[in-house]
Design a protein that fits this description.
The protein is of the alpha+beta class. The chain has three helices and four strands.
């Protein structure tokens, strides 16, 4: 009797960076699979139709993960809050008597607080 031969995996890895890898997933209709490099569970991936799409998605997801891990995504949310606050102030600035200085100071202090961690908001 012949010894059991190890079978070739159903997936053929094409490229991997530190965070995400992509490969042609022969077991899933030959679609291209993008998944975290350390992920091996079924269903924790994205499937796309072309190698170019897979490569682009892997790079985008890697960049997002780097931004998230460095705290920049949370920082971007704080920035969006500042933009919203400034839009409201700008909108009401043309209406006589619409802006109450104390209210404007409170709202701008709240919006700017994440960017000035060593200072006290509102002072």
């Amino acid at each position: 009797m012949e010894k059991n031969k190890t079978t070739k995996p159903a997936t053929n890895a094409v490229s991997s960076n530190r965070l995400f890898e992509y490969f042609c997933d022969e077991s899933y209709y030959h679609l291209w699979c993008v998944r975290p490099s350390n992920e091996r569970r079924w269903g924790h991936c994205y499937h796309v139709q072309s190698k170019d799409e897979a490569q682009g998605l892997a790079e985008e997801l890697s960049q997002l993960e780097l931004l998230r891990s460095a705290g920049w995504i949370a920082h971007a949310k704080n920035f969006e809050q500042c933009v919203r606050t400034l839009r409201v102030i700008h909108t009401w600035a043309s209406v006589d008597g619409a802006l109450i200085p104390e209210h404007v100071k409170k709202q701008t202090s709240k919006a700017l607080k994440p960017f000035m961690p060593n200072s006290k908001a509102g002072n």
